[in-house]
Amino acid sequence: MSSLPHCPECNSEYTYEDGMLFVCPECAHEWSQEPSSDAEDEKVIKDSNGNVLQDGDTVTVIKDLKVKGSSLVVKVGTKVKNIRLVDGDHDIDCKIDGVGAMKLKSQFVKKV
């Protein structure tokens, strides 16, 4: 019996090779046969000026942002301290004074 790796998604033992990929017939997950490095898997999040953002950075809002579901507006120039980067469409998780916990898009902020 060949020693093919188990599926990283569902841990199925029934994987097979298809060209340069491994395929899982149970969950249809496909992955490369080459070992991937963690540096390639990390997504780099940049602000509106192209500066790389990191957890704990301080950013400034560059555009008035309406808060969905309320009449509040986050004004231009609002400083946001100690941001956290997350996966998704809104890739910054933060707390803004006077507004509360929010998620922001990195395209609407600049690094201080």
From TrEMBL:
Q: Where is the signal peptide?
A: none
Query: Which Gene3D superfamilies has this protein been placed in?
Result: 2.20.25.10, SH3 Domains
Q: Name one Pfam family in it.
A: Zn_Ribbon_YjdM
Every Protein YjdM N-terminal domain range? 3-32
Q: InterPro entries this protein is in?
A: YjdM (IPR004624), YjdM_C (IPR013988), YjdM_N (IPR013987)
The chain positions of domain Protein YjdM C-terminal read 45-112
Give the domain of life: Bacteria
Membership in a protein family: Belongs to the YjdM family.
UniProt-recorded name of the protein: Protein YjdM
